[in-house]
Design a protein that fits this description.
This protein is an all-alpha fold and about 80 residues long. The protein contains five helices and no strands. The longest helix is centred in the first third of the chain and has 14 residues.
Length: about 80
Amino acid sequence: MNTLFAYAYLWAFNFISKKKYNAHLDALFLEESNDEILLELEECSSDLNTSFIKLKRYFENEVSSFESNIFGKVLF
C-alpha cells in the first residue's frame, strides 16, 4: 500500500500515468481480493482525487506505521 500511495502522488503530479497506477492497484487487488480498501480503490480508480483521499484516510486511520523508506524509494 505504501507503493500504491507513492504512485498516487506521482500520478497527481503527472510523473506517471493513470495506467501505471492502475496496474499496481490491480496487482495488489489480485493478491488480496477480500481487502475492502483495495475494492474501494478499484471502484474509483479512474478518479485521482477520490483515490488519493481514500488512500490518505487509510494511512491516517487504519495504519499504525508508515513505511517511509518504501514510499521514498518509489518516489525517487
